[in-house]
Design the sequence.
């Protein structure tokens, strides 16, 4: 897609404050199917395509790990994705069950209740997660008769990425390292092939971390390992949750203070985004990241 005309930071930020969630794309199918989801990313994508799932696994954790889009009332909780309540599933009589490759061991049993569709996004295959998430969204749209809704949703997401990239200004944005704190000595740091790294690539922002990640797009390192980041212009992006005492404690550490990108003016904190998400979560991360970087500039 060709780049949109350059948009001002002020207008962009104001637009984000009033823009509806990308999950608001209307679907044109006459009636949604009865779909049960064992995967948060699949449930989020269903909402984006205009369908409310009849049940979601680990529903009690949705607000904490996903947050937005909000799950409508009346959706049943299937219990933990590792210990599905098959009694609830049988009573609901779904006509499709969404799952992921990491729950493949449940497929033979699930198939007794309804056809099973696995959205293969986080796999050992090469390639960015965002590319696979886009393909999985199209596949889901086709499977549930919502091809037009899937196309509209992906076009809207693409426009969001274009706007974010224009606001960030490409080469004007420094490389970034994205972390979340485990404790005062250890962090998760995010790189290819994960969702966060895929979004950085789409926005034209360099990831400063030189290491390789697991299939989920992260590795656990000691804070001292951050010294491997060579570019002194790097900005540090911290993903919440962030304990209130972490940064004050680290600011007393000579090692932490010696890292140039840990200075307050180079550090931004953004709300949590589901790490194992799809396009909805990619656009949420892009929006939060762009807003934080633009306000920092």
Sequence:
């Amino acid at each position: 897609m060709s780049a949109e005309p350059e948009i001002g930071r002020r207008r962009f930020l104001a637009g984000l404050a009033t823009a509806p969630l990308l999950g608001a794309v209307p679907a044109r199918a006459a009636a949604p199917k009865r779909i049960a989801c064992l995967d948060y990313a699949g449930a989020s994508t269903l909402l984006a395509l205009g369908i409310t799932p009849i049940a979601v696994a680990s529903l009690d954790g949705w607000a904490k790990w996903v947050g937005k889009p909000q799950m409508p009332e009346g959706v049943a909780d299937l219990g933990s994705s590792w210990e599905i309540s098959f009694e609830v599933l049988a009573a609901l009589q779904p006509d499709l069950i969404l799952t992921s490759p990491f729950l493949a061991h449940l497929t033979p049993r699930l198939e007794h209740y309804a056809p099973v569709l696995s959205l293969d996004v986080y796999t050992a295959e090469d390639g960015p997660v965002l590319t696979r998430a886009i393909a999985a969204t199209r596949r889901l749209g086709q499977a549930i008769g919502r091809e037009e809704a899937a196309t509209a949703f992906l076009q809207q997401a693409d426009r969001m990425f274009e706007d974010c990239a224009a606001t960030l200004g490409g080469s004007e944005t420094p490389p970034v390292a994205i972390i979340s704190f485990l404790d005062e000595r250890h962090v998760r740091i995010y790189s290819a092939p994960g969702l966060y790294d895929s979004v950085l690539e789409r926005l034209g922002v360099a990831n400063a971390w030189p290491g390789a990640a697991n299939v989920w797009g992260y590795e656990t390192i000691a804070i001292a390992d951050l010294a491997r980041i060579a570019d002194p212009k790097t900005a540090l992006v911290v993903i919440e949750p962030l304990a209130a005492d972490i940064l004050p404690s680290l600011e007393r550490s000579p090692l932490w203070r010696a890292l140039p990108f840990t200075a307050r003016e180079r550090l931004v904190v953004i709300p949590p985004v589901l790490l194992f998400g799809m396009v909805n979560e990619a656009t949420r991360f892009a929006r939060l990241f762009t807003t934080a970087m633009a306000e920092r500039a």
